[in-house]
């Protein structure tokens, strides 16, 4: 097939556009990296910040010199692990009976789940419920209220339904009960969807900040996102001083600036996600496709 | 086979169906055990808060509790409809949502179509991987990047103004430019991830159709117009209907992390309003009334848009 000129122009323009889109994504992060390792005379000034003559890691040393940020790493990891494990286990367990056509009251249970897709109590009633259950200021307030969603249940259930019945039947013949069939046969076969839900849940937990903002009022549990929000927003200096464990943010004579510390905190909050998501790509792509088949 | 079905509780149709309920229940007890934790969660944390909706019809005070607070009927709903600011936030929400849909909805489709035309598999995969990244970041992080980029005194925006000799403005402090930032950052964040579903749909198109189109002399543009787009139309319709369900959302996380007192008149949306009135000012009854109004309108919108799309294209989601 002969390629004509207009086709060539299109190809070049298309590749150029794709490169431009990638650039808009890579550029802000590259800037943050450079700012975080720039010496004060560069990081405090306006500039492109794509290169530094004299890299220094003092900002990072300062960020990690106090326990504050490490402690929020602990809380973030704790909520992520607890939230993800509970979400995956409870959702899969709930989805399994719902995938069985003969399950008693299946339609009713399914409607109970599906209805929540369209209508909910809303922010304030949920807050009052969490308060009523004495979960405020505990790590459970970050884990339990958003445990399962109807969407996840539907996706897992669709996956279970698509599994061949024969595998289960032979296990039942061997005298296995529903419990062992579910844990020993169905779950191992469902790894693709389990991995997808795990990824969604992990990212969701890691990124979530609003629940920590409203449910944690005594400041004992500070997750990374909240620290970052405090540092970036409003009373920056006080929050910054708090994270850095210093009295005030008078940085004259230091080898770092408020800008480089902020960039450093932003990066250490983002890094785990940047490192994980490319390797889990095939799972979330698959999950989206399963969800799209019957939404 | 029938033994297996029996074991699993799927009996052959029995005239004495009622009396088989208990044995069936017994046989399925493990299934019920699996169901229970999740079902309890749904009943407590999804249906439990619906009980709190009563608060909107009462003069709620935390001391009395939901039950013994006095009924006031539709007092708070009337108050809401008479409040000028409520209509301002509703209009803001609709404006922001519609702009976001108008630009943010076609963007991933176009991106997927263009990406599909990239010949090199390797290059395409790299572009895809990079384009997914912003989706996985919280709005807290993205807001941090935006603060940096648009800062007149520090960011790239300031640099550009310097280079062209423009007078830099505070972009996040001006209603119009704030709106533009909302829309652009929304597209930036979701364009890659949103394209996944369309790429999957495109991958599922029968390649015979393209082959016969080539024989008929159709170029790449014509193939895209007459084969690719019609083939992914059901997917587009489905996502459009689902997207309309969120038309009253406007993007709480994004706006909450970016807005400030200067842009309140254009950037305050229903959700941020509910948050401030409810959890900051503690006017529970009023804010719940606003929340209910929002949910009900959203529900009506989804169902009616589903109906309209069904009429137009014979394709319904629900």
From TrEMBL, chain A:
It is a multi-pass membrane protein. Keywords: Cell membrane, Membrane, Transmembrane, Transmembrane helix, Transport. It is found in: Cell membrane. It comes from the Bacteria. Residues 73-277 form the ABC transmembrane type-1 domain. Coiled coil: none annotated. Belongs to the binding-protein-dependent transport system permease family. This is ABC transporter permease subunit. It comes from Paenibacillus glycinis.
UniProtKB/TrEMBL annotation, chain B:
It comes from the Bacteria. InterPro entries: MetI-like, MetI-like_sf. The keyword Oxidoreductase does not apply. CDD domains: TM_PBP2. Its main location: membrane. Keywords: Membrane, Transmembrane, Transmembrane helix, Transport. Gene3D superfamilies: MetI-like. The keyword Hydrolase does not apply. It is a multi-pass membrane protein. The chain crosses the membrane at residues 30-48, 96-115, 136-157, 177-203, 224-248, 284-309. Residues 90-309 form the ABC transmembrane type-1 domain. It holds the Pfam family BPD_transp_1. It is found in: Cell membrane; Membrane. Belongs to the binding-protein-dependent transport system permease family. This is ABC transporter permease subunit.
């Amino acid at each position: 097939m002969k390629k004509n000129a207009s086709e060539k122009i299109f190809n070049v323009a298309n590749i150029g556009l794709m490169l431009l889109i990638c650039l808009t994504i890579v550029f802000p992060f590259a800037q943050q990296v450079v700012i975080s390792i720039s010496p004060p005379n560069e990081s405090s000034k306006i500039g492109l910040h794509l290169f530094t003559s004299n890299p220094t890691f003092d900002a990072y040393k300062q960020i990690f010199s106090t326990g504050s940020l490490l402690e929020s790493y602990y809380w973030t990891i704790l909520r992520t692990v607890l939230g993800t494990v509970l979400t995956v286990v409870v959702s899969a367990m709930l989805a399994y009976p719902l995938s069985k056509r003969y399950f008693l009251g299946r339609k009713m249970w399914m409607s109970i789940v599906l209805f929540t897709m369209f209508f909910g109590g809303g922010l304030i009633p949920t807050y009052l419920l969490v308060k009523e259950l004495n979960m405020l200021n505990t790590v459970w307030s970050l884990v339990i209220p958003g445990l399962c969603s109807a969407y996840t249940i539907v996706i897992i259930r669709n996956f279970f339904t698509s599994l061949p019945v024969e595998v289960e039947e032979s296990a039942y013949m061997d005298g296995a009960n529903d419990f062992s069939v579910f844990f020993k046969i169905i779950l191992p076969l469902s790894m693709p969807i389990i991995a997808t839900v795990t990824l969604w849940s992990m990212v969701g937990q890691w990124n979530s900040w609003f629940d920590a903002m409203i449910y944690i009022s005594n400041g004992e549990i500070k997750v990374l996102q909240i620290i970052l929000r405090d540092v970036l927003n409003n009373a920056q200096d006080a929050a910054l001083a708090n994270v850095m464990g210093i009295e005030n943010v008078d940085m004259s004579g230091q080898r770092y600036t408020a800008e480089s510390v902020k960039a450093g905190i932003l990066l250490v909050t983002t890094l785990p996600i940047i490192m994980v998501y490319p390797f889990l790509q095939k799972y979330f792509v698959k999950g989206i496709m399963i969800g799209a088949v019957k939404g | 086979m029938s033994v297996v079905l029996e074991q699993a509780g799927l009996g052959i149709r029995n005239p004495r169906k009622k009396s088989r309920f208990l044995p069936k229940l017994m046989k399925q007890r493990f299934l019920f055990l699996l169901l229970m934790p999740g079902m309890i969660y749904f009943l407590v944390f999804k249906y439990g808060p619906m009980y709190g909706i009563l608060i909107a019809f009462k003069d709620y005070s935390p001391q009395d509790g939901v039950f013994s607070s006095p009924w006031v009927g539709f007092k708070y709903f009337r108050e809401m409809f008479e409040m000028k600011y409520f209509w301002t936030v509703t209009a803001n929400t609709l404006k922001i949502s519609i702009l976001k849909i108008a630009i943010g909805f076609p963007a991933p489709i176009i991106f997927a179509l263009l990406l599909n035309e990239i010949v090199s598999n390797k290059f395409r995969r790299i572009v895809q991987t990079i384009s997914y990244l912003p989706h996985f970041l919280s709005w807290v992080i993205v807001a941090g990047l935006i603060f940096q980029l648009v800062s007149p005194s520090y960011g790239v925006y300031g640099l550009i103004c310097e280079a062209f000799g423009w007078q830099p403005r505070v972009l996040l402090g001006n209603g119009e430019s704030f709106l533009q930032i909302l829309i652009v950052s929304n597209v930036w964040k979701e364009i890659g991830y949103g394209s996944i579903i369309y790429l999957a749909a495109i991958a599922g198109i029968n390649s015979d159709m393209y082959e016969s189109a080539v024989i008929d002399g159709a170029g790449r543009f014509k193939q895209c117009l007459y084969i690719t787009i019609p083939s992914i139309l059901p997917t587009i319709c489905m996502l459009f209907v689902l997207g309309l369900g969120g038309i009253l959302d406007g993007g709480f996380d994004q706006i909450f992390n970016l807005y400030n007192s200067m842009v309140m008149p254009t950037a305050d949306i229903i959700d941020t309003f509910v948050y401030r009135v409810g959890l900051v000012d503690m006017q529970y009854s009023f804010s719940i009334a606003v929340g209910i109004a929002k949910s009900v309108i959203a529900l009506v919108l989804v169902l009616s848009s589903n109906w309209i799309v069904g009429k137009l294209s014979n394709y319904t989601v629900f």
